[in-house]
Amino acid sequence: MISQWQLRAAFAARLSDMYGREVPAYTTLVDVSREVNEDVLRTQGADAERLGSIGRVTAERHGAIRVGTPQELQQVARVFGALGMHPVGFYDLREAAASAVPVVSTAFRPIDGEELARNPFRVFTSLLTPADPRFFDADLRSRLEAFLAGRELFPPELLALADRAEAERGLPEEDAERFLRLAVQAFELSTEPVDKAWYETLERISAVAADIGGVRSTHINHLTPRVLDIDELYRRMTARGIEMIDTIQGPPAWKGPDVLLRQTSFRALAESRAMRSPDGTVLSGALRVRFGEVEARGIALTREGRALYDHLLTLVDQQAAARPEADRSDLTRAVWEQHLPATEQELIARGLACFTYQVVPDRPRDGNRPPAGIVDLVEQGWVRAEPIVYEDFLPRSAAGIFQSNLSGEGSRNNDHEGIAYDAEWLSGAIGREVLDPFALYEQQQNHSLAQVARALELDGTPG
């Protein structure tokens, strides 16, 4: 049997190979990421692997896809379910973006610590929202929904194999090979001519809507390697003549602990596509929808930590509005240095970040009882704290990446009230529970604290 994690690792590797053939600049991105990671490892040694082994970081990828209907999303969930991946988190990019990005999203990923260590492949998956009247009037919504209902993204054989793999937690070798081949094919860029008039109709609303509903298939929108120094990668990619977006999204570069997620990308490239004119003539055209993204992952924050992060973003926005001539990255760094703890110990003390805790083998043996609090246990050498890697995404950053790769703003009629979506609605649409990322991190942390309490024979779980 080929296990689910092996299927996941093989799928991620094959998808990366396929995307590199389709978008050669992505291969450059992977090569530069590897070079940067090797340099950081040489310079920093073991500290470079504080948030994951170099083997994990080098193999790590996340992909992004876009689908049009709840039924398509359910089918995506079956394919990723075969790989041991679950929907985690709800992201409303309609509200996070200044331009027209009419999608809500989740991320399919492993949730078990061992599974993440084996291969942490994730796929950020966006669902179009035709029912939102701010983007689509009644006529266009009707036409769009009819178009989406008439296409098939995933062949029945792939879905049947996916269901077997999920139920049996793997597949025999021959079936695994067939599943992988069909799964990768499902995300290749189609050579079928694009209906030019229909695509342009949707593009006037949103380039994202056109990418989802203007074609008869889906495809990988971008793939993302992980890098240990994203600022250095940005410099090296630019030096190679690759046009990068204007900024690195997420927290700033600073001297304190890296938290959450930093992301950037090279700009979407013009790709040749066959276009069918209204008279049936097929012409050669070009679309700019796919790009290469790169990420640097930091420490997962608690709910309180995330609330502080969001508050700091608001402070930065206010200062940027008051001082439009100032460099935003400088403003952000100053806000961070003023309000965010500068050490992991302070993050722990203020309950802002998530860690796992392990009893230290050479802990004090002086006959004294260990302290009751986790901060004292760490500071006095009884317990070691290991940061939990942030495995998820930031809606504002995701929207910023999307926006930076759009050629136009699209249109959004704010005279209409938007349709409300949330994690509960998305769970119903998928037919599977959309898991709360904060709860997953808390469970991981609390499990380790319970183990510490047992090992040290504490009266209660250290707080």
From TrEMBL:
Q: What is its EC number?
A: 1.13.11.93
CDD domains, alphabetically? Answer: VOC_YdcJ_like
**Keywords of the record:** Dioxygenase, Iron, Oxidoreductase
The UniProt entry, under InterPro entries, shows: HGLS, YdcJ_bac-like
Note whether Oxidoreductase occurs among the keywords.
yes
Q: Which cofactor does it need?
A: Fe(2+)
Q: Does the keyword DNA-binding apply?
A: no
Task: Give the domain of life.
Answer: Bacteria
* SMART domains in UniProt: DUF1338 (SM01150)
Family, per the entry?
Belongs to the 2-oxoadipate dioxygenase/decarboxylase family.
This one is known as 2-oxoadipate dioxygenase/decarboxylase
Q: What organism, scientifically named, is this protein from?
A: Streptomyces viridosporus T7A
